Amino acid sequence: MPEQFSCCGCRINLAKDVYEPSDDSYLMIEAALAEIGASSQAMRILEIGTGSGIVSSVLMQNMPEHNYITTDISPLAVLCAKTNGLQVVRADLFAGLRGHFDIVIFNSPYLPTAPEERVDGWLDHAWNGGEDGRTTINRFLQQVPAFLADGGVFLLLISSLTGIEEVCARGAAAGFAMSKAASVHCPGEQLVVLHGSLQD
Length: 200
Known about the structure:
The protein has helices at 23-37, 54-62, 75-83, 124-127, 135-143, 164-173; strands at residues 4-7, 10-13, 44-48, 67-72, 88-90, 101-107, 148-159, 176-186, 189-198. The chain has 200 residues and is α/β, with parallel strands linked by helices. It has one domain (4-198): Vaccinia Virus protein VP39 (Rossmann fold, 3-Layer(aba) Sandwich). Strands 5-4-3-6-7-9-8 form a 7-stranded mixed sheet, with helices on both faces. A two-stranded antiparallel sheet has the order 1-2.
């Protein structure tokens, strides 16, 4: 039997070498519930890097009227999320996806990671943000405009270790109005969910 985990009344399966829910997961759940709950219309919601699927699983349980699609680059995470009832596509960010989404959620790999700090296996993709922590984040900010519906927004989780001002500046350069949707202080860092909406 797979190991199970309970969060916000939602029980999910976990798997070896798949990112386990942690403080960043809970903060994203908080921010996403607030953002999605503010809408009275059914939406298309995309979660990039779903891992075990905890975020989308909680959202689906609380707000099943929306259409949820998730992705992950790790085949192990894809299998795990599927056991939790999610529609999952194996993809590097938006690769192979079509259409537009009202909300894009991304708990990014944000930790600054030197080459010698990398670990073998798929789990490295869950936290390895490159030497400045922003390698994958920068790619995301470059690609996400093409996948947002009119009025669409994204929620991006990063850390003070990543450089919050630098990420906000990169988002602004890509045409987004950037703001903080949620934050929490953890030992050694501050976790922040950034809200991005395309400026007119």
